[in-house]
Amino acid sequence: MMLTYGLARRGNGTYVLYAFVWDVEGNRTNLGTKIITCDNDNAVKPFGTLDTPAPGMTFPHSYYGNINFGWVLTPQPKYIPFDGSTIFVYIDGELKGNVDEYGNYSASVAEMFPGYVNTDNSYGHYFIDLGSYENGVHTIQWTAYDSEGVGEGIGSRYFNIQNTGGAQAEARSRVESMGMVSSLTSIPENSVGYVGVKRGYVGADLEMFYPDENGIVNVEMKEAGRVEIHLMDLMGDEALYAGNLGAHYTGYLVVGQELRPLPIGSTLDKDKGIFYWMPGAGFIGEYDFVFVENKRGIQSKFRIKIIILPLSFNIGHHMK
Fold first, then answer.
1. HEC states along 63-75?
2. CATH numbers and ranges of domains, the chain
3. Using an 8 Å Cβ cutoff, are 305 and 219 in contact?
4. Which residues of the chain have pLDDT under 70?
5. Measured on CA atoms in the order 294, 138, 96, 74, is the torsion positive or negative?
6. Tell me: the pLDDT tens digits for 103-151?
7. Is residue 263 classed exposed, middle or buried when 0-12, 13-18 and 19+ CB atoms within 10 A define those classes?
8. Number of alpha carbons in the 13 Å side-chain half-sphere of residue 266
9. Cα–chain-centroid distance for residue 246?
10. What is the pLDDT of residue 155?
11. Among 116, 117, 118, 123, residue whose Cα is nearest residue 101
């Protein structure tokens, strides 16, 4: 992610990006250049970034603890509501709710971006429940909507969680309780029918997707987007979710004949039967998944193929 407002001319005009990579021995390779054009003078969407966790930062942090800080502004004359009710937090693709507080002062933001309605009230934070997650790499993103309902992603990044003691034991217990199968041969033959799919963020429609002739449900999405796969065939009826029907779910990424863990940046709610995924940069192509439903001792499987297309492609409806 690049905050283009921080470029020369405040992000208006043409720019050349250069990328280089160094290996551990200090050898450098030029990865090439890319020309981009920015037009922030005519921007209409909210903008901002996350300050913590910084990319690759480990939580709990010695100074920040478990606090996720960020700031949001939007072009004049619009504003971001000071109560934070239009700023949403996603961790590993799952909507966690609104920020805990918004509308605070940040000297650095106020100095860099004077004259906005939220200039002196741009800062907010969210407390991450670190004990709810297993140790390892996770993703976080804010999505903000302004006073006219225009929304935009505000920062997304990978960060690490390194719990110790009781918190890590509790997180591991939750993961292990999901159950595991050892190989493709352990997957039941019985297949389930359609699934519900949401593509996008707050307010996204729940669509019905059916399997093809091979029993695979194909779902297209855009890179750097978000998808929810609702495995229950109840199409969003919260009162009848799996938790009330004695069902639970496990899920795997299928690579060749191997079953692998679900990808970084994803969450499977084993009781509700909902898979959340917000792929990071670089995830383009086809990804095969298998999900196993265990309901009152009867096992069934869902085969899902998620096809991530470049931003320049149009999402088709023929897969539905």
1. CCECEEEEEEECC
2. 44-169 (2.60.40.650), 181-309 (2.60.40.10)
3. yes
4. 166-186, 233-245, 313-320
5. negative
6. 999 999 999 999 999 999 999 999 999 999 999 999 999 999 999 999 9
7. middle
8. 22
9. 28
10. 84
11. 123
Q: Which amino acid is at 171?
A: A
Asked if 286 and 255 count as a contact pair (C-beta separation under 8 A), the reply is: no
Helix (H, G, I), strand (E, B) or coil at 196: strand
CA dihedral 97, 102, 108, 111 (to 10 degrees): 130
3-state secondary structure of 9: helix
Rounded to two decimals, the pTM is 0.85
pLDDT (0 to 100) of residue 45: 95
List the one residue out of 198, 254, 257 whose CA is nearest residue 229: 198
What pLDDT, on the 0 to 100 scale, is given for residue 239? 46
The strand pair at 206-209 and 101-104 is best described as: unpaired
| Residue 62: exposure state from Cβ atoms within 10 A (0-12, 13-18, ≥19) | exposed
Contacts of residue 15, defined as CB under 8 A and 6 or more positions apart, other chains included, come to 7, 8, 35, 36, 37, 38
List b or e across 227-237, with b for residues whose CB sees 16 or more CB atoms inside 10 angstroms.
bbbbbbeeeee
Closest CA to 293 of 174, 214, 173, 195: 195
Residue 209 structure tokens: 């997707």
Angle at CA of residue 155, ends 236 and 286, nearest 5°:
60
Helix, coil or strand: residue 46? coil
Dist. CA 237–CA 48, nearest whole Å: 35
Return the residue matching tokens 């352990």.
186
Cα angle for residues 81, 200, 273 (degrees, 5° grid):
110
What local confidence, expressed as pLDDT, does residue 185 receive? 62
Tokens of 85: 């009710």
